Every structure is written in structure tokens, then in C-alpha cells.
Amino acid sequence: MSKKKEYDPGIMGRSVSGLLLRILVAAYIVYMAWKVLSGALAGGSPIPDWVAWAIFLVFAAAATAFCVYALIQFRKSLKGAEIPADSLSDSNNSDTHSESDSADSDK
Length: 107
Description:
The chain is mostly helical.
């Protein structure tokens, strides 16, 4: 039977916040690329169609690379936030020992 992994809540919160922020930045990059492309295709821009497509593809590739980077960073920080199972059992044992030690010192 495998135990559920425990994570440090502070590090986990920062990891999730960082991931969400990076995904929002990538979405904004795609939005900017779409605006350039749609403006050029609608005829409201002096940029030729092929240049607009090139800009769109470069921005989309950058957003994809940034999402991959965000996921890699999230997995690294998630691994760093793991609380080892042996430290959980050690902390439970030390609490039990400290309570019995304090009870012995009262005698």
C-alpha cells in the first residue's frame, strides 16, 4: 500500500502561483501573436501576410517553449516541496518521546 506524498504547503503554494503566472504570460504572448495575424489578414495592417504568419509562428513557438519551461520548473519545485515519509515518522516519534521525557522530568 503506497502512502500519499506530503508537500510543504508554503513551497507548494509558490510553485502553483509561479506555474499559473507563467501560463498567463504564455497565453498573453499567443494573444499578441493572434492580434498581429488577424490584423494583417483583415487588411488593416501594412505587414504582408507571410510576415504576419512568421510573427505568429515565432510567438506561438516562444509561448510553447515558455509553457514547457514552466512545467519543468513546477516539477522541480514540486520535488523540492516533498516531505520525506521517514521525516514524518521521525517527527511523530520525537513528539511521543518528548512528551514522555517531560512527564519523567516532573517526577
